[in-house]
Every structure is written in C-alpha cells, then in structure tokens.
Amino acid sequence: MYDWNERVQEMIDWIERHIEEPSSLANMSAQLGYSPYYCTRHFHRLTGTTLRDYIRLRRISLAALELRDCDARVLDIAVKYGFSSHEAMTRAFRREFGITPQDYRRSPRPIRLTVRAEVFSPYHYLMKERNRMEQAENRRAEIKVEHIPAHRFIGIWDEEATDYGNFWERGHDCDEVSGTIESLSHEKLEGQLGHTAGWLHAGEAEADGQDAAGRQGERKGPSGYFYGIPAPAGCSAEVPEGMERREVPESEYLVFFHPPYDYLQENGEVQQTVEQTAWNFDPARLGYDWNDAPGVQNYQRHFPEGYGYAVLRPVKKV
Description:
Structural class: alpha+beta
Order of helices and strands: HHHHHHHHEEHHEEEEHEEE
Shape: globular
Helix content: 25-40%
CATH topology of the largest domain: Multidrug-efflux Transporter 1 Regulator Bmrr, Chain A
C-alpha cells in the first residue's frame, strides 16, 4: 500500500546525495530502477510539487545557507548548485525570497527555505512491516540533569494543540514554518537543537485510588504545543510573520533521553518509552520538585539519527 511512499523517499535521498551534480531524471530513474514517467508522476502525487521544482528549491535553499554561513564567492556558490552564472542565481534568489544574494549575505533575515521532504514515515514503515515485526526489546529512558540559561524562544505557540502531529493538523504550514526556522538556525542558543518543540503544560499527576465505578484514575496528558528555535537572551533577530518571541527564564531540567536510533523502525516505541517516563516521574527521587515558574517550558528534542529523542521538564532543588 505504501510502496510508492518508500520509492519516492528513495528519490528524495538520491537527490540529496547528488544535489551538487547536474540533475538527470534518466540517470536517477536508471539507478533506482523505475521509469522516468512513474518517477515524476508519483513524486508529484506525494510531495505536491514537481521533481524539477523540488530540486530547484532545494538548491536555492542550500545556497542561501552557504551565503549566510560561509565566505565563498557568490559565483562559486552559484556554480556549485547548478546555476549558469552569478546573474542566474541572483534572478532565482530574488524571485524566490524577494531579496538579492548580496543583500541577504549582508543582512540575513527569516526566509522560507525548502527543507528535505519526507513521505515515508515511521507510520508507513509500521504498516508495511507489521506482519514481520518481532517482539521489540525492552527500552529504558536515561535521566540526567541539564542547566539551560535564560534565553529567548522564537516560534509559534498553540494553546489547543496537544502534540507534534496535532500541531500541524490545526492549520500550521509545516513546510513554511520548518523552512523559516531553518533560516534562523544561525541564531540558535549554544548547545541546543535548532528545531525545538514542546508543551506549555505538563498535565496533572497520576490520580490515586479508584473512582465510583472502580476505574483507576488516569493522568491528564501534556497540552499546549509550541514549535520554533531557542536563541540567546540578547538575540535581536527579526521575528518572522506569524511567530513571536518569548523570554524563558533559566532553570535546571530533568532530561528524559534515548540515544540515537533508527527513525523508521523504532521511533514510535522510543517516543512512547521516553514520554511515559517523563510524564510519570517523581522528581523527589532526585531531590527536585517541578519548576512551574512563569515562562518555563517543557521541551522536546527530536533528532533520531544524530541526537536521539528527549523530553525536558524544568525542576528546582527541594
């Protein structure tokens, strides 16, 4: 059922590996073993954009990051990403971002970058492999303490959203928000991930005892979801339209953490393990109490292959 999701993800991965080379639909389709017709048809169906436009947008977005982060000549960057000349890249850059490469380099501002597409997720993998899945190994979340200094957070807060999926379902444009946050990655707080999310409210503690019907009390889960980027306290970067900047006080955090893992095969199990531990843990075991001071947030870090997965809850010493 999801075979073409997997095939198109292979196309996306192939594009990323060959993004600096002259694009050739025939070459890609030959190496992946699919006809050019089916490649283009299913790519457009699953990504909502044509193969040619996706490659063009990825190249101009990667060029923008290099303009921002390195000192290479504009011409060298243009040639690297397949533009015939300095002028050709300038026209494409202005058309896409409304600013010239030179002006953007002098004064970077939030722009909508095109990030790597994802059409084959852990959900698709589970549906494809569910009849062949074996008993999963028992997992445990690691727990450590981390101090995060006072900082600013630029992003979107949604009081009604409950988690990552629900946040996007509520009308926030994933491509636009993710691309804009990526353009602010040079502003991130040292030691933190660029794309960071979390919850405004941790929910209620596990209820004790049973109700009148004999049912065990259930915990009310976290609520109020946000997505954005943590920035230093003195950050004065322009706040993108539709986002806001909030002050976050310093705090110690309990970090409920799982090290890097296979995103497709293990994501659901890892997230469930970490979150169950985080939302039901008693901080008194480590000499802490939850810190519910105004402005502190419950953070979520999700970078499976590079960092792992973590939920961070603010605490204070008892």
